[in-house]
Amino acid sequence: MKEPDSAEKLLTEHIKNENLRKHCYAVESAMKFYAEKLGENSEEWAATGLLHDLDWEEFPDTHPNTAVPILEKAGYSKELIEAVLGHAYPERTNVPRNSLLAKYLYACDEITGFITAYSYMKPGGLNDVQPKSIRKKMKDKAFARNINREELVKGAEDIGVEFDEHIQNVINAMKEDPRLK
Predict the structure, then answer these.
(1) Domains and CATH numbers, the chain
(2) 174-181, long-range: CB within 8 Å, 24+ apart, which pairs?
(3) In a structure prediction context, what are the per-residue pLDDT tens digits for the chain, which is 181 residues long?
């Protein structure tokens, strides 16, 4: 497995936007949380979360397909690459989410963005975010309008975790990451 700092280095080479990096850190945190909970390889799962949007800033129209040669050159596993491709299935790729890694990446990706956006509205940030408030805010279609609410729910269903529990797990994981303060 690659060294954890090599994923961070790759991220900083390809993503300059601080908000996009923070999104990647949030997904990394959620993925690491679930890997530890499930007894999976936490380094690989964390790297998958960290690098899932590696090409978004440079190549938004061909994301995540243009991440593949970058990840291959850096020596990342086929499973990690397939998970990155799968998180955009079927809209942008023909790679379905078959692996546990791919399913969890999909489940953690958009929900972290929604939680982050909501936390910016709260005086205490992430400390003031609860699953009930996320569910309520999901009804406001003008808020974070680019996030598909059905996909948030489907992600939790695909990993077999009750939606409120999934939201709480992601919030807890994000609270543990000092880069998200």
Answers:
(1) 4-180 (1.10.3210)
(2) 174/26, 174/29, 174/30, 174/112, 174/115, 174/116, 174/126, 175/126, 175/127, 176/29, 176/33, 177/25, 177/26, 177/28, 177/29, 179/22, 179/25, 180/22, 180/25, 180/26, 180/29, 180/116, 180/126, 181/125
(3) 566 579 999 999 999 999 999 999 999 999 999 999 999 999 999 999 999 999 999 999 999 999 999 999 999 999 999 999 999 989 899 999 999 999 999 999 999 999 999 999 999 999 999 999 999 999 999 999 999 999 999 999 999 999 999 999 999 999 999 999 8
